[in-house]
Amino acid sequence: MNQTCNTSDVSISGAAIARRRVGRARAGVVALILVGITFLAGAAWAADAPPQLEQGREAYFAGKYERAYDLWLPLAEAGNADAQFFLGQFYREGKGAKQDYRQAARWYEKAAVQGHPAAQHNLGYLYINGLGVVRSLPIAYKWLNLAAGAGHEEAQKGIEELQSQLKPEEITETEAKLGWMYHTGWSVRQDSSEAAVWYRLAADKGHPAAQYSLGTLYAVGDGVEQNFSEALFWFSAAAVQGHGRAQLQLARMFLRGTGVPKDFATAYAWSYLAAQGDIGEAKRELVLLERQLTPEEYAAASNRIGVFFHQGVGVQQDHKVARQWYEKGAAGGYTPSFFNIGLMHHYGLGTEVSLVKAEEWYAKAVERGSADAANGMGVIYQRGLRGKADYQEAKKWFEKAVAMGSVAAEYNLALMSYLGLGGKPDYKAALARTEKAAEQRYAPALELLGRMYFLGHGVEQDLVKAYASLQMAAALGNLNARAGLATVAAKLTEEQLAQAQEQAKAWLAQRASDESGGQENAPRR
Q: Distances from the Cα of 303 to the Cαs of 278, 288, 426, in angstroms?
C-alpha cells in the first residue's frame, strides 16, 4: 500500500458494517458525500512522503490548479496512491483538467486497489451513479465496504443506504469477494480474520466458494482457531453443491483421517466427483487411490457414487448413471446397492416401473440383512404387487423390517392402523407406533403425530403439541407438515404459538442428523 495520508481516525470493521441491516434507505440513487481535496487542509504527510505532495497541496489552495496537477501527475504515474486520488478529483471536478468521469474512475481505481479509503469511497459513488463506468450497485457495495473497513465514515453511511437496493444474491456475492480480497490482500491490508468474517457471511447464505474458502481457513488455522470439524462442515456444504476443490479436500480428509475416521471408500467417491470437474490433482490422486482399495471398499465407493448421481449431490442428477454404479456395488456384494437397484425399479428411476424386479432386488437385499429392503417389500404389498393390495403380507414385511431396525416400517405400520388398512382404524395403536418413529426423528411420523394432536385422534387435542410436531417435521423437509403449519397457527394465541415454537426449537437444537431425511424412497449409502 502506498497511502501516505491518514484520512480518518475512525476504526470499524467493514464486516461489522455489513452485518447491520437498517431500513432507512432512500428510493433512487444513493446520495453520498464525496471526499474532496479540501480534506487535506490539516493533514500530516508520512515522514517519507515526496515533497511534491505538499507543494501540490499549497498550489491547489492557492488556486494554481494546473501547477498542482503538474506536480502530482508524475507521482501518480509512479504509483503514489494519494496523488492518484487527487488526479481522480481533478478529473471529476474539472479543476486543472477538463471534467472527465472515465479518467476520474481510472485514477480512483489505481488508488483504490492500493487501499486508499477516500478513493474507494469515491469510486463506489461513481459506480452507484454510472459516472464514467457502467452502473453497478454490487461493485459500489464492495468498494464502500472496503472504505468503511478502513474507517471511512461516509462510506459507512452509504452502505446502510445501499443495502436495500441490492438483491440478496448480489450482497452475498459481494461478501464472498470481500472475503477473498482480505484473504489475499488485494486492495486492502491482508487480514485472514477479517476474511473469515466475510466468508462466513456469504457461506451462511449458501455461497459454495465462500464455504470452501472458510473451510480452508479452519483446516489450517488461518485467521481462526484450527478446527477440523468446522473445516469438514464447510467443505461438505460446498462439495454437495458441486465445488470441485471442496470435494477434493473432503476426499483428502477421509483418506488421511483428518478430523474423521479413515474411510477409503468415501475418499474415493469424493475424489471421483472432483475428477469429473477436470481438477488435475483429483484425477492423479484417484488413480493412486483406486490401487489401494480392497474389492469391498470399491463396492462401497461405487454405491456412494451411485447415491451422488441418484440424488444430484455434488453432480448433475442422472438416474441411469446412478444405476450403473449401483450395479458395480452389487457385483461386489455391497448390500445397500441391492436395495438401491430395487428402489429404482420400484419408482421408475432411470428405468420403467417394475414391481416384480423391485421385489427381486429387495429380496436379495433382505437376504443380506437390509431392513430398508424388508420395508420396501411391505410397501410393494401394501400398494399392490399385481394390481391388488395385500395388507396382511404388507404387515408381515413391515413387522419383519421393524425387528431389523427400520423406523420407516414402524411409521408404515402406524399409518396402516391409522387409516384402517386391512381392518378398522385403531388410533391408539397408531399413536403408539407413531410416537416410537417420531422419537427417532422420522419426519413423516412427526407430521402424522401433529395431525393426530390437531384432530384429537387417539389422544386429547393439543394444538401446541400439534404445531410443534409439524414444525419439527417441516424442519426435516416434510412438505405436508409445511402446508399444515398455517392451518394450526390460525387457531393458536400468540402465547401458544411462542410456546410451540420454543418446543420445536429445543428439539431441533439436540436433533441428530438423519441421513435419509425421513424419506421412504431415499437411497442408502
A: 22, 20, 40
The pLDDT tens digits for 127-139 are 888 899 888 887 8
| Rounded-to-integer distance, Cα 448 and Cα 435, Å | 9
**Cell numbers given for 256:** 488421511
| Contact by Cβ (8 Å): 36, 89 | yes
Classify residue 32 by its DSSP letter. -
Using DSSP's 3-state secondary structure scheme, residue 511 falls into coil
Query: In Å, what is the CA distance from 476 to each residue of 75, 284, 402, 443, 520?
Result: 61, 38, 22, 6, 13
DSSP 3-state of 5: strand
Query: How far apart are the C-alpha atoms of 72 and 53, rounded to whole Å?
Result: 7
Secondary structure of the chain: what % helix, strand, coil (to 5)? 65, 0, 35
CB 339 within 8 A of CB 376: yes
Q: From 304, 345, 359, select the one nearest 326 (Cα to Cα).
A: 304
User: Taking a C-beta distance cutoff of 8 angstroms, is the pair 450, 488 a contact?
Assistant: yes
pLDDT band (50, 70, 90) for residue 148: confident
Helices in 221-368 by DSSP H: which ranges?
228-239, 244-256, 264-276, 280-292, 295-311, 319-331, 335-347, 355-367
Encode pLDDT of 350-397 as tens digits.
999 999 999 999 999 999 999 999 999 999 999 887 778 999 999 999
Instruction: For Cα atoms 177, 181, 187, give the angle at the middle one, nearest 5 degrees.
Output: 125
The CA distance from 302 to 323, in Å, is 10
Return d(Cα 6, Cα 350) in angstroms, integer: 65
Other Cβ atoms less than 10 A from the Cβ of 463: the count is 19
Query: What DSSP element (H or E) covers 397?
Result: helix 391-403
